Amino acid sequence: HAAYIYIRGEYTTQVKVLQQAIDEAYAAGYLGKSVSGYDFALDVTVHRGAGAYVCGEETALLESIEGRKGQPRSKPPFPAVVGLYGCPTIINNVQSIASLPYILANGAEAYRAHGTEKSAGTHLFGISGHVEKPGLYELPLGLPLLEVVEKVAGGVWKNRALKGIIPGGSSTPVLTAAEAKTVRLDYESMAEHGTMFGSGGLVVLDETVDIVALVKNLIDFYHHESCGQCTPCREGLGWMLKITESILAGQAKSEDVDLLLELCDNIEMKTVCVLSAACTMPVRSYLTKFRHEFDAYVEGSTGTPGTPN
Questions:
Q1: Which one of 125, 157, 183, 261 is CB 3.0 to 4.6 Å from 145, fit for a cystine?
Q2: Which InterPro entries match (predicted)?
Q3: What is the maximum alpha-carbon separation in the chain?
Q4: Parent domain of 239
């Protein structure tokens, strides 16, 4: 049997630590031809990627390990049937696997004692953006979002007002300050508010954030990381970027903002993987919830970013 740990090529220090742990496991007999003395062989290999964001998609990851361009495959067949080198393959995120030792040692009920009925256990939250104490925190699921921002991350920095929170990484729809008051950090609460838990990467936005500039940077990232396989993603994200740049430059019309929304509808879920949707879903949320900021650029208004004149 073979297991592969896929890790970003930029994580040089982490690769060294991980490889050392694997070497120690081999030396202790936990890996190799006879795992802990049983008639079961398992080899673990660390595979360093080249930094492509799209390789977070499971089949693009398989393509990368096999030595090809990181490009998502059409499904079916699914990896559990035809995966790495044509063999049945199970692919799990590292956080899912990291939960197993506690469950195996203490049982499922002990794990479910944390969190909520439908969102059990703990989760790693990377809290960044405009907070006093950014960092990585392990917390039980189900906590009120603003309570975590205030008590764990020290609140919005410099005593500024909260504008919004990105709840699960850049691909998740944004929450306004008003919406954040009733959101809890669990899967069901996020769904009720039209967003997603995602990776647990919370990004706090204070009152000075220019939403249009934020959206431009977001689209720029996904356009750059597109593998180029699908026309809606390859071309559509490029057009979205051009339109957003024209809005920032004060060269757009109100119809261009509407066109951005139209492009979101025409691109989303019309590709092999969901990278395009990872861009269009949050962009749509910004356009819907902060339309006045886009209109301010179109109308030539000036002043504090995000504040209508």
A1: 183
A2: ComplexI_51kDa_subunit, NADH-UbQ_OxRdtase_51kDa_CS, Nuo51_FMN-bd, Nuo51_FMN-bd_sf, Nuop51_4Fe4S-bd, Nuop51_4Fe4S-bd_sf, SLBB_dom
A3: 73
A4: 211-299
d(CA 114, CA 134): 23
Question: Which is it for strands 135-140 and 122-129: parallel, antiparallel or unpaired?
Answer: antiparallel
Residues composing the chain = 309
Q: Is the pLDDT of residue 306 over 60?
A: no
Q: Scanning the structure block, which residue is given the tokens 């990181």?
A: 70
- Cα-only R_g, the chain: 22
SS3 content of the chain, % helix, strand, coil (to 5): 45, 15, 40
Q: Is residue 186 part of a domain?
A: yes
b/e burial code for range 250-280 (CB count within 10 A of at least 16 → b):
eebeeebbeebeebbeebbeebbbbbbbbbb
Q: E strands along the chain, which residues?
A: 2-7, 43-48, 122-129, 135-140, 162-166, 175-176, 201-206
From its phi and psi, is residue 201 left (phi > 0), alpha (psi between -120 and 50) or beta?
beta
**Does residue 17 lie in a domain region?**
yes
Final residue of a structural domain among 204, 226, 243 = 204
Could you report the per-residue pLDDT of 18-39, keeping only the tens digit for each? 999 999 999 999 999 999 999 9
Q: Which amino acid is at 90?
A: I
Q: pTM of the full predicted structure?
A: 0.92
